[in-house]
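pasting for the record
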Amino acid sequence: MGWWWVPLMLVLAPWLPGNPGIQAGAPGLWQWVSLASWLPGVHPCLLCFGPSIQRARLCRDITGAPLKDPRHQHCLEALVQAAVPLASVTVGSGQREALREIIMDALHFLEKQKDMKPFEVSLQEAVNTIWVKLSQLKEATACVPPCGYQPAARVFQCATCRFVDCQFPLDCPVQDVWARADEAITLHCDVPFATPPDLPITWMFAKDLRTQDLALFEELPGSAEGTLSLTLQDPTPGTIACRLGVLSEPLVRKYFYLNVSGGSVEAEQGLQARFRAVLRWPHGRTHLHYMASLGLGLGLALGSMALVLLLVLAWDSQTPLDPQSLRIPYKCEETRVSKGGHNCQDS
């Protein structure tokens, strides 16, 4: 595994489960940068500028010894060891050239001091001068989470000799926005970090969907020349997205999900008032109107009953009738009359 696993474990320790975590700018992040120079394939800032032959020539001029001479090897090792602390240096991308000049000036200083002071003394003075000049450089712009490509925050790392961007996705998390159907709403595509001027802005919409899938969006007409704000007069449920920058090189994409509810409070109050008016008798109607409506209903009911009776009688008329069944029953009461006959009266 090699000797370098110890500093590697020290670097990874803050990231292990159970650790409170590391935020941007926390000591753990700088611990990674400062220890990275001890890992295989990672070099201090001195090795980022100028070829190795330049340092070999410098040590030859300082020591006067050939390449394989122990004094020459000692000079090269001393240069590298003195530059190890510089592995923690990180400057803004626009200050890389200034950093290179600081390093090269230190090497030139060593070359001028070769006949005046011991090499170790001159080397320490050169390193001290480097730190003084580095402290005068403008501090690099910090990355602003959680999303977007941030050119102003791009930095140059001495530990890797590379430019490093903020490790954030281009797509911002979806923001929930609440709106009413009959009220205008304004969305803003601004971001909390610096952006180049005159960036094209594109607005897109995915109806009835909460999504970040660009294939589901339709570009709103004329939005590429629009402003950072979009006003919707009649919001519709769905996701509104805005893109800063051209399609091939966007800086950020923001998403707004529109949660659209009913109309305004005033409109709802008017609708409720009309609904209550339907449920009660208006003041303009009189008792006569009510009686007329009631009579009409009773007439319809009686007409329906008569129709049913006629249908029943028509059905019965189709069967033969017994004459006896047609006799009208009556009650005959005998009374005694003067001629001895009977007198029957219909009851």
